């Protein structure tokens, strides 16, 4: 199957280095301390953050930092007619761990000892790049909750199909069997918090794909900061009234 046409267009009409349209909104869960809806193309994710609050299980309490917990789920309707594994399957457990570890790298947990921060992420609609969308949603929800962070964490994927590096893979491209790199970074600190790759690439090709993913992460970071700035302006306007 040809994933990039001779004219340089992908199946969904994008150029190889073009991201899907991204959209975000915050404060979408009324009773959460922070929440966000994040969309990357047809992939839609909602995240809710609760805390910092008292640790529910005292045996898990950390005296020098906050306990960060994460739960990842997929809505029953998220994948259409594709088979969905039940809650608690190995993939959900792994992605929950990936999101938690990625968020722990940015949260200043030492400022909140003996407390707990819960992050809930649910995929409402899946069309590739769900891990990246979940991380972006969680990062935005943490910012909405006012959780102290070293920097925002943003994520984007890139792949290699038809001898062409592609940014922000959709489901068809992600399922094609080519190399797929999922990256998470703290853009201001220039630090990598997540790097996962399926299949093998030469060093030169990997560097090109990696750089493409970095550019995607930075574009997401720019957009997220605009969303947060706009929200701040709206709050200041309301207080002024």
TrEMBL record:
Pfam families linked to this entry: RNase_PH, RNase_PH_C
Domain annotation Exoribonuclease phosphorolytic: ranges: 18-148, 151-216
Segments forming a coiled coil: none
Keyword Protease among record annotations: no
Gene3D superfamilies reported for this sequence: GHMP Kinase, N-terminal domain (3.30.230.70)
Keywords from the named record: Cytoplasm, Exosome
Gene: LOC110755011
Protein family membership: Belongs to the RNase PH family.
Domain of life: Eukaryota
Compartment(s): Cytoplasm; Nucleus, Nucleolus
Keyword Electron transport among record annotations: no
Biological process annotations from GO: nuclear mRNA surveillance; poly(A)-dependent snoRNA 3'-end processing; rRNA catabolic process; U4 snRNA 3'-end processing
GO cellular component, as recorded: cytoplasmic exosome (RNase complex); nuclear exosome (RNase complex); nucleolus
UniProt-listed SUPFAM superfamilies: Ribonuclease PH domain 2-like (SSF55666), Ribosomal protein S5 domain 2-like (SSF54211)
Identification of the protein by name: Exosome complex component RRP41 homolog isoform X2
One Gene Ontology molecular-function label: RNA binding
Predominant localisation class: cytoplasm
């Amino acid at each position: 199957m040809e994933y990039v046409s001779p004219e340089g267009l992908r199946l969904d009409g994008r150029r190889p280095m073009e991201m899907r349209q991204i959209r975000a909104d915050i404060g979408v869960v009324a009773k959460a301390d922070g929440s966000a809806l994040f969309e990357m193309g047809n992939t839609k994710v909602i995240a809710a953050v609760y805390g910092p609050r008292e640790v529910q299980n005292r045996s898990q309490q950390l005296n020098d930092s906050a306990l960060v917990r994460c739960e990842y789920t997929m809505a029953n309707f998220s994948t259409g007619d594709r088979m969905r594994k039940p809650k608690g399957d190995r993939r959900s457990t792994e992605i929950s761990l990936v999101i938690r570890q990625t968020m722990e790298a940015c949260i200043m947990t030492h400022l909140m000892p003996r407390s707990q921060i819960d992050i809930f992420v649910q995929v409402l609609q899946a069309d590739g790049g769900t891990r990246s969308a979940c991380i972006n949603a969680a990062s935005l929800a943490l910012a909405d909750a006012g959780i102290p962070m070293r920097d925002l964490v943003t994520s984007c994927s890139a792949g290699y199909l038809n001898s062409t590096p592609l940014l922000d893979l959709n489901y068809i491209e992600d399922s094609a069997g080519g190399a797929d790199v999922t990256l998470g970074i703290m853009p201001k600190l220039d630090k990598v918090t997540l790097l996962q790759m399926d299949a093998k690439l030469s060093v030169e090709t990997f560097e090109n794909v990696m750089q493409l993913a970095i550019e995607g992460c930075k574009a997401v970071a720019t957009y997220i900061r605009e969303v947060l700035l706009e929200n701040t302006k709206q709050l200041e306007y309301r207080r002024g009234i």
